[in-house]
Amino acid sequence: MPDIPPDLDWIRAAPEDATGPGPWIEIAFTESEDPEAPVYIRETSDPDNVVTTNRRKWDAFVLGVQAGEFDHFVEGVELDTTPGK
Q: How far apart are CA 13 and CA 35, in angstroms?
């Protein structure tokens, strides 16, 4: 596993009004704009388990999510509309 820089700025992927520890997904980017620069992904409940990809693959994934390419993965999943979640 590649070394994880200790000074990463982790961005939590959670609704603005979310409270509590999650679990949430967190993303961290390096300063580099290089398409092969690493992107780090972890879950708040297991912060030592970090998955690494690169900006090119991350950008393709985000565009796919925006285009609805992964909607079939959540078919039949109930959205929890409890306030604060």
A: 22
